[in-house]
Design a protein that fits this description.
Blueprint lengths: L33 E6 L7 E6 L2 E4 H7 L4 H9 L6 H5 L2 H15 L6 H8 L1 E3 L3 E4 L7 E5 L2 H11 L15 E4 L5 E3 L2 E4 L2 E4 L8 E4 L3 E2 L2 E7 L18 E8 L2 E2 H7 L13 E3 L4 E2 L7 E2 L17 H6 L1 E2 L2 E7 L1 H5 L5 E7 L7 H9 L10 E3 L14 H4 L7 E3 L9 E3 L7 E8 L7 E11 L5
Parallel strand pairs: 6-22, 8-16, 9-26
Antiparallel strand pairs: 1-2, 1-5, 2-3, 3-4, 6-7, 10-11, 12-15, 13-14, 13-22, 14-16, 14-17, 18-19, 20-21, 20-25, 23-24, 25-26
Helix pairs in contact: 2-4
């Protein structure tokens, strides 16, 4: 028996809410992810919510009416605020107490006044709007996919030495921009900046011509650590509240010109889009698996190695990228799928990212966000960025047209009006499907265009 599992992971359990039991739902009773929401178009305050089927459990209403006790009551009160930072800061014991308390109220056998109060506070997901779930003080983006790194190395460096010398020794990362992180539905203007045209000796200023997406997972920090007190690897998951989908939009032509010697700046700071729902680490427990560093590969230094990570440090999360164009939308066609991969292919684990981030004494804080880096698998159809799929734009993708919906389109990079949709879920026999919902963002014309 997996020691991480408990009754809330039992696939045989069901809810009195029929939509939570529907085949293929992202949000069964075994999931219970958190978001910040309000009814769309109202002046209501944003507050915490939990997804169940096609509904949102209003945690502010639960705090007032549903009769939770003890630590669960304190936890749900923290969720009645317009950001979840205080709840994140309470730590794993409080997170579990609230999860288990809500599970008991939502289970098919539940009854009584508390259940009636919770039922009365349900809000249809189709009627809500979301905010970023926490006040994100700092955003750090990593670079942890060996397949993505190798693909990029082949494009820009060529030869056999496609990885930088440090890639297999440290989880590479850089400090990103928190202020431009938006929630699914974010629309942003194509960024402006400097780029060096092929063959030119001087840069030009203008709209990005090589706009790309990056398929990532976002890691929300729960409890932080004190300045000067590194988080040990085998305790790293205690400091992670949960995961979301993350699109790290990238201006490739701007990036190519500006990244030396300090890395990307304008190429990454204009927008990052995350999904509204944060799936807890407890909900993901059935999908943790052994983290493996193959024989012949450099083995991690001691602070990045622990039996607990070797045994269950990886996660098998299925991920897809879809593209909806203006032409497809106008012709009634749905989005086209660009790739499908799994997070299990990452070279470095979430725990290793957290441990490395803090080993020098850096203090993480509740609500801080880490990006996993682009998630790519070993084959081209598992690539997590358009620059990989199109070989830097040299081999444009053909988007097959649905019958009767007009000619096929091609893409080397993203065009104005394009919407990128990220999807994620976990699924295997004997366990409930755990979904992430989606992260959707759309490209608008550049300023002044």
């Amino acid at each position: 028996m997996n020691a991480l599992l408990n009754h809330t992971h039992d696939a045989a359990r069901s809810s009195w809410l029929a939509s939570a039991n529907a085949a293929g739902t992202d949000f069964p009773i075994q999931n219970l992810p958190f978001a910040v929401f309000r009814r769309r178009g109202t002046g209501e305050a944003f507050r915490g919510g939990v997804a169940i089927g096609d509904q949102v459990v209003d945690l502010a209403a639960v705090s007032r009416n549903a009769g939770l006790q003890g630590l669960a009551a304190k936890a749900v009160a923290a969720c009645a605020q317009p950001a979840l930072n205080d709840f994140f800061a309470m730590g794993p014991e409080a997170w579990q107490a609230l999860r288990h308390g809500l599970f008991a109220l939502l289970e098919s056998t539940a009854s009584g006044a508390a259940v009636a109060a919770l039922r009365a506070g349900l809000v249809p997901q189709a009627e809500v709007e979301y905010a970023v779930p926490a006040r994100i003080g700092d955003f750090t983006d990593f670079y942890t996919s060996v397949h993505h790194a190798a693909n990029i190395g082949k494009l820009f460096r060529g030869g056999d030495d496609v990885l930088t010398p440090n890639f297999k020794w440290i989880p590479i990362g850089y400090h990103g921009r928190a202020s431009s992180i938006g929630v699914s539905g974010q629309a942003f203007q194509r960024p402006m900046g400097q780029a060096l045209p092929p063959g030119a000796s001087a840069p030009v200023f203008g709209p990005c011509a090589r706009l790309d997406y990056e398929l990532e997972l976002g890691v929300f920090i729960g409890q932080g650590n004190a300045l000067g007190a590194p988080i040990p690897l085998d305790r790293a998951f205690d400091h992670v509240f949960g995961l979301c989908l993350l699109n790290d939009w990238s201006a490739r032509d701007i990036q190519a010109w500006e990244y030396q010697p300090l890395g990307p700046f304008l190429a990454k700071n204009f927008a990052t889009t995350i999904s509204p729902w944060v799936v807890t680490m407890e909900a993901l427990a059935p999908y943790r698996q052994a983290w493996v560093r193959a024989d012949g590969e450099p083995q991690p230094l001691a602070y990045l190695d622990a039996p607990s990570v070797r045994e269950a440090g990886a996660l098998d999360i299925q991920l897809e990228v879809w593209l909806q164009t203006e032409q497809r939308h106008a012709n009634g066609a749905g989005p086209a799928r660009l790739s499908h991969t799994s997070f299990r292919h990452q070279y470095w684990s979430i725990a290793q990212m957290v441990a490395h981030h803090t080993v020098g004494g850096c203090n993480l804080q509740p609500g801080d966000l880490l990006g996993s880096g682009t998630i790519s698998g070993p084959t081209l159809d598992q690539a997590g960025a358009m620059i990989e799929l199109t070989a830097g734009g040299r081999n444009p993708l053909t988007l097959a047209a649905a019958e009767g919906t007009g000619p096929a389109e091609t893409r080397g990079f993203l065009q104005d009006g394009d919407a990128v949709i990220l999807k994620g879920w976990c699924e295997k026999p004997g366990h409930a499907r755990i979904g992430f919902g989606e992260s959707r963002g759309q490209v608008l014309p550049a300023i002044g265009a």
